Amino acid sequence: xxKNLNLSLKVWRQKNAKDKGQFExxxxxxxxxxxSFLEMFDVLNERLIVDGKEPIAFDHDCREGxxxxxxxxxxxxxxxxxxxxxTCQLHxxxxxxxDTIVVEPWRASPFPVIKDLVVDRSAFDRIISAGGFxxxxxxxxxxxxSLPIPKDDADESFAAASCIGCGACVAAxxxxxxxxxxxxKVSQLALLPQGQPERKQRVMEMVAQMDSEGFGSCTxxxxxxxxxxxxxxxxHIARMNRDYISAELSSTK
Amino acid sequence: xxxxxxxxxxxxxxxxIMALTGLFLCTFLVIHMIGNLQLFxxxxxxxxxxxxxxxxxxxxxxxxxxxxxxxVLFHAFKGFMLIAKNRKARPVKYAVQDGAAxxxxxxxxMGILGTIILLxxxxxxxxxxxxxxxxxxxxxxxxxQDIHKDTLVSQAMEPTYxxxxxxxxxxxxxESGQYHVTIVKDLYKEVAVEFKEWWLVALYVLCMxxxxxxxxxxxxxxxxxxxxxxxxxxxxxxxxxxxxxxxxIPASFAAMPLFFFFK
Lengths: 253, 263
Ligand code: SF4
Ligand code: FES
Prior knowledge:
The complex is a heterodimer.
Chain A: E1 5-13, E2 22-31, H1 37-50, E3 73-74, E4 77-78, E5 100-104, E6 113-115, E7 118-119, H2 122-131, H3 151-161, H4 168-172, H5 179-190, H6 199-212, H7 223-227, H8 235-250
Parallel strand pairs in A: 1-5
Antiparallel strand pairs in A: 1-2, 3-4, 3-5, 6-7
Chain B: H1 3-9, H2 11-36, H3 46-57, H4 59-88, H5 105-108, H6 110-133, E1 140-146, E2 151-156, E3 167-174, E4 177-185, H7 187-194, H8 198-225, H9 234-262
Antiparallel strand pairs in B: 1-2, 1-4, 3-4
Helix pairs in contact in B: 1-2, 2-4, 2-8, 2-9, 4-6, 6-8, 8-9
Bound molecules: iron/sulfur cluster and FE2/S2 (inorganic) cluster.
């Protein structure tokens, strides 16, 4: 068994959206390397509660990398030093005894801090409501074979659909751009026959919503894809760029 | 809102303009570099000076050059606006941000690299374009070619000499042979004189590094913005972007001041 860790945590504390906020340093001792990063925070919070202090607020839900809630900017990177994982999937064995770990909330004007490490990501929900859906008039279930979909397209669409809306792409981007998220949500439908009727309208409206939320614009640094826990590819951004320009040029809107 | 304004004021539309003007400037660099290779000829600048006249008088090129000036200004102006907008998207900075872990440094410093290039363009235009068009330092030189013996001599004209056209050509013959004489504004000499200043040479060479790094990201990035990201073409785009635009082009440009400095 590996030796347990003694760490210093520099954590962003902010009482509410209006508060200015500041870093606070906490020592955590005897942390098992098998703990997840969030479990380490649980240990710290237990102690804070016992001491009669306010525990650190952070978002989490599934703790298995599928809900996208656990937004933490750890040592300068969203979800910490490992690739393809969320904070809940990050284990303490990725750190060394004696490390100082800096933990900050996502920083982006469309993601205002609510408290401590919790940010409001409802800007993403508004982008989805603007067009990230297909309209279906319900009726009898269709025969599965009536809509042939090439395997490659299905796979590509599925890869895009694996985006969990965590916001790490925005957090990592030097421009706080939401292009990777939006392009994943545009692509997953653009690649399937069910997405075609609203394809043009969808991309135009989602881009418009993305802009009005105040996200920055893309400079193709690729930081988003490198930090995305689901490793969403930049090809989706390229597809959205194509779709957007051709939709603007060819739609009647 | 009109659809054109709507499209070009969206974040994607603005990127599209950046990519479009950027690639246009890339094609200009290719022409500019190839044309300037004539500086390396050992003809006292005859070919280069003749080319300079062509570039400043041929109507189509003049139109394209105004488009070019507009593109430079627009690319720079839009770039600055986008930087300001992108800064606003993150009003509170991170205490620690490890950009190197997820992106190439050129891609994160396009604004700084671009600013260096813009300042360079100002200096460069002052050095040559302004001097050539409006300055009084650039004199005329006569080139006398012996048509049969294929020899060439050059003779600087009096500083006070001037002519209506930028280039005058005459043929004449006497008992010693047949000659073709070209009298042209000698920009080549201006280049040769300017590049004897070590600090100007150093500045030019350093600025070519900025060009190299700007294009290292910029060329490839433009294709991504146009939506061209495909395993069949990415290799080629990357190859051209790196080897041609961020190595060969800036290295050739940097070679010019160095050539004259050490000549
Ligand atoms: S694209 Fe990746 S980083 Fe961005 S929200 Fe989706 S899963 Fe998270
Ligand atoms: S808590 Fe659900 S992804 Fe981390």
